[in-house]
């Protein structure tokens, strides 16, 4: 877990909470990662709005900061390490604004975004309506198991 200096003073989830949320997501079935695979590492970085906006522009062609981005590790030849899942980048200021606007606790919103981002690393996406429905249902179930309310209840979809 890395924290850029620009966000070091912002409220961030404790490491234990981060770990629990990511492990919860890793319990999901995945075509990309079998139960026999040993996932031991992913990177998580908290960045400021400017860096997140640059990443979002560079990778998604959207000129604004977003709450989180996921970058799955490409498949590697057997010769290389196979225990790297990918990278997650989160913008705490965006997360805080969203939690306040949506009337959610910051803790629960972080849990949701950590699960959401990890599911992207496992191969889930929400580009098509059917895929979005599957991913949202899985997120809702995983969060409910952690005692977190449905994050999509009463929320408009983009």
From TrEMBL:
<dbReference type="GO" id="GO:0005737">
    <property type="term" value="C:cytoplasm"/>
</dbReference>
<keyword id="KW-0479">Metal-binding</keyword>
<keyword id="KW-0378">Hydrolase</keyword>
<dbReference type="Pfam" id="PF02130">
    <property type="entry name" value="YbeY"/>
</dbReference>
<dbReference type="GO" id="GO:0006364">
    <property type="term" value="P:rRNA processing"/>
</dbReference>
<keyword id="KW-0698">rRNA processing</keyword>
<dbReference type="GO" id="GO:0004521">
    <property type="term" value="F:RNA endonuclease activity"/>
</dbReference>
<keyword id="KW-0540">Nuclease</keyword>
<feature type="binding site">
    <location>
        <position position="116"/>
    </location>
    <ligand>
        <name>Zn(2+)</name>
    </ligand>
</feature>
<feature type="binding site">
    <location>
        <position position="126"/>
    </location>
    <ligand>
        <name>Zn(2+)</name>
    </ligand>
</feature>
<keyword id="KW-0963">Cytoplasm</keyword>
<dbReference type="InterPro" id="IPR002036">
    <property type="entry name" value="YbeY"/>
</dbReference>
<dbReference type="GO" id="GO:0004222">
    <property type="term" value="F:metalloendopeptidase activity"/>
</dbReference>
<dbReference type="InterPro" id="IPR020549">
    <property type="entry name" value="YbeY_CS"/>
</dbReference>
<comment type="similarity">
    <text>Belongs to the endoribonuclease YbeY family.</text>
</comment>
<dbReference type="InterPro" id="IPR023091">
    <property type="entry name" value="MetalPrtase_cat_dom_sf_prd"/>
</dbReference>
<keyword id="KW-0255">Endonuclease</keyword>
<protein>
    <recommendedName>
        <fullName>Endoribonuclease YbeY</fullName>
        <ecNumber>3.1.-.-</ecNumber>
    </recommendedName>
</protein>
<feature type="binding site">
    <location>
        <position position="120"/>
    </location>
    <ligand>
        <name>Zn(2+)</name>
    </ligand>
</feature>
<dbReference type="GO" id="GO:0008270">
    <property type="term" value="F:zinc ion binding"/>
</dbReference>
<keyword id="KW-0862">Zinc</keyword>
<comment type="function">
    <text>Single strand-specific metallo-endoribonuclease involved in late-stage 70S ribosome quality control and in maturation of the 3' terminus of the 16S rRNA.</text>
</comment>
<keyword id="KW-0690">Ribosome biogenesis</keyword>
